[in-house]
């Protein structure tokens, strides 16, 4: 009886010890797995790009679950239901699927509330492209976050060890962590892309903001659209009094459309107004534009806004510059612009040794017309005379109004004979009668002019000196015209002669 009792007690002790050892082993395995899971979570937290997340996941998960093969399948991204192999571990290259694959049959029923399934291959069929890998047990996990399907995780063992309930429960936690890591990676990429777009927009905006020439601004808007959006073709049309005029175009298929002929735009072309004020500064026509809702389209919309502001600023600068350089009454260049242009021409001609002629024109009969018929008639006389001077000068030189009834013309790369011939044509044009519209009807008047000529070859390449010389010569011509009481075009021209030439200060060319 005593021996039996002793044997029973020893058996109980051995049983308890065995259970304790088994419990410790289970605890050790659980601790080890928990440690590896924590290491996986830490590793996933250190990578930011989605591809890196997936590569890290397949390696660590294969080790965590002692799997021979680990695969991540993600949506192909081509609009189909196909999947692509995004990352894999343990799969021979000859077994890799060509192109996209279908969702494995066993993975199709998985949902966010039931994200994992595991069973022997006989119960959970393997994909055809894995059939030759000698698999025994498979486990599938659904990668999902906030109801969005991110892909599938596939684990496989080639031996007879099944994925037990503990594996299944742990795999649920793993696919959840991988899904969060993928979502964080996408958020990181979107943030980086947005930052990059903002930096690009800032760089592009800074480049465009420096444009003050209208045509240059239009050219840069076109180039920016093609390079940075990108689009296939782009064209900028400027709005003017007569409609729209092409300012710049580029690309493989840029739209060549004038006016409001929008039905004639190529298929898929986009028309965007440029500017914020009415009338708009112009219109931007684009082909090959990104789809609505895309980041590229958003970037395009930002560039359209920036381009409109840049174009408006360039047009404003152009108007201000024209006002600063143009005579308000006649539309001719004013004194400031003329002197700037004359100085530049003299500097160039000094270097190549060519001559510059300045013709100083003063209207002889302006005061009489102005006093007799009024200021409006005087203004009409000046406007018509300005038109005649500009037309006569043509490509030979630049004509400007200095003020009052004084005009000036500068001719570069010329000779004394050519300048004197131009002066004769000017005299003839200005001496012709003028028809002025008055409140009482039309009246025909004559005005005439006196012309003085100054040549850089005689008096040097200084703009102020040359203008003063031509002015003095004009005054002499005016005095002689009055004294002789004649208005012949040739007789009205006096050429400035340098001192010491033996002909006196002024030589009457008539």
Q: What does this entry look like structurally?
A:
Mean pLDDT is 84; it is low at 486-495 and 497-510. Strands 11-12-10-15-16-17 form a six-stranded mixed beta sheet, sandwiched between helices. Strands 2-1-5-4-3 form a five-stranded antiparallel beta sheet. The protein has 510 residues and is of the alpha+beta class. A hairpin with a 7-residue loop joins β1 and β2 (83-89). It has eleven helices and 17 strands.
Share of residues in strands:
15-25%
* Outline: rod-shaped
N-to-C series of helices and strands? HHEEEEEHHEEEEHHEHHEEHEEEHHEE
Give the strand order, joined by hyphens, for the main sheet. Answer: 11-12-10-15-16-17
Please sum up the structure shown.
The chain is 47% helix and 23% strand. The chain has 510 residues and is of the alpha+beta class.
List the helices and strands and how they pair.
Layout: H1 2-46, H2 50-64, E1 69-75, E2 83-89, E3 116-120, E4 137-145, E5 148-157, H3 165-209, H4 214-228, E6 233-240, E7 243-251, E8 270-274, E9 282-287, H5 295-325, H6 335-352, E10 355-363, H7 366-373, H8 375-393, E11 397-403, E12 406-414, H9 416-431, E13 434-438, E14 441-445, E15 449-455, H10 456-459, H11 463-484, E16 493-496, E17 506-508
Parallel strand pairs: 15-16
Antiparallel strand pairs: 1-2, 1-5, 3-4, 4-5, 6-7, 6-9, 8-9, 10-12, 10-15, 11-12, 13-14, 16-17
Helix pairs in contact: 1-2, 1-3, 2-3, 3-5, 4-5, 7-8, 8-9
């Amino acid at each position: 009886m005593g021996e039996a009792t002793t044997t029973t007690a020893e058996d109980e002790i051995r049983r308890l010890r065995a259970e304790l050892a088994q419990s410790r082993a289970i605890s050790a395995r659980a601790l080890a797995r928990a440690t590896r899971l924590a290491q996986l979570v830490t590793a996933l937290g250190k990578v930011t790009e989605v591809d890196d997340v997936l590569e890290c996941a397949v390696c660590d998960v294969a080790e965590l679950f002692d799997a021979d093969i680990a695969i991540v399948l993600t949506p192909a991204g081509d609009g189909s239901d196909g999947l692509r192999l995004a990352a894999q571990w343990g799969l021979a290259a000859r077994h890799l699927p060509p192109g996209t694959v279908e969702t494995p049959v066993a993975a199709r029923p998985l949902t966010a509330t039931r994200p994992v399934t595991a069973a022997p291959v006989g119960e959970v069929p393997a994909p055809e492209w894995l059939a030759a890998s000698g698999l025994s047990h498979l486990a599938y996990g659904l990668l999902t976050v906030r109801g969005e399907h991110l892909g599938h995780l596939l684990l496989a063992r080639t031996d007879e060890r099944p994925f037990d309930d503990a594996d299944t429960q742990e795999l649920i936690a793993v696919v959840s962590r991988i899904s969060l890591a993928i979502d964080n990676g996408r958020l990181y990429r979107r943030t980086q892309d947005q930052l990059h777009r903002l930096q690009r927009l800032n760089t592009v905006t800074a480049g465009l903001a420096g444009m003050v020439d209208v045509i240059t601004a239009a050219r840069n808007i076109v180039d920016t659209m093609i390079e940075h959006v990108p689009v296939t073709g782009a064209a900028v049309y400027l709005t003017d009094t007569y409609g729209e005029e092409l300012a710049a175009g580029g690309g493989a298929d840029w739209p060549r459309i004038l006016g409001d002929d929008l039905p004639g735009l190529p298929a898929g072309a986009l028309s965007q107004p440029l500017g914020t004020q009415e009338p708009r500064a112009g219109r931007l026509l684009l082909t090959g534009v990104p789809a609505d809702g895309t980041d590229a389209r958003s970037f395009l919309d930002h560039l359209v806004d920036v381009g409109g502001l840049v174009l408006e600023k360039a047009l404003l600068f152009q108007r201000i510059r024209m006002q600063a350089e143009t005579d308000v009454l006649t539309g001719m260049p004013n004194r400031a612009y003329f002197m700037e242009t004359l100085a530049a021409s003299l500097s160039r001609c000094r270097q190549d040794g060519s001559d510059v002629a300045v013709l100083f024109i003063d209207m002889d009969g302006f005061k009489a017309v102005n006093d007799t018929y009024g200021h409006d008639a005087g203004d009409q006389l000046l406007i018509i005379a300005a038109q005649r001077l500009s037309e006569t000068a043509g490509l030979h030189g630049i004509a400007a109004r200095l003020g009052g009834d004084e005009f000036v013309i500068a001719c570069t790369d010329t000779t004394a004979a050519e300048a004197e011939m131009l002066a004769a044509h000017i005299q003839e044009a200005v001496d012709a009668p003028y028809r002025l519209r008055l409140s009482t009807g039309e009246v025909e008047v004559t005005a005439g002019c006196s012309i003085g000529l100054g040549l850089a070859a005689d008096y040097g390449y200084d703009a102020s000196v040359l203008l003063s010389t031509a002015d003095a010569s004009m005054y002499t011509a005016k005095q002689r015209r009055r004294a002789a009481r004649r208005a012949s075009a040739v007789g009205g021209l006096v050429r400035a002669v340098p001192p010491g030439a033996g002909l006196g200060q002024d030589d009457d060319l008539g």
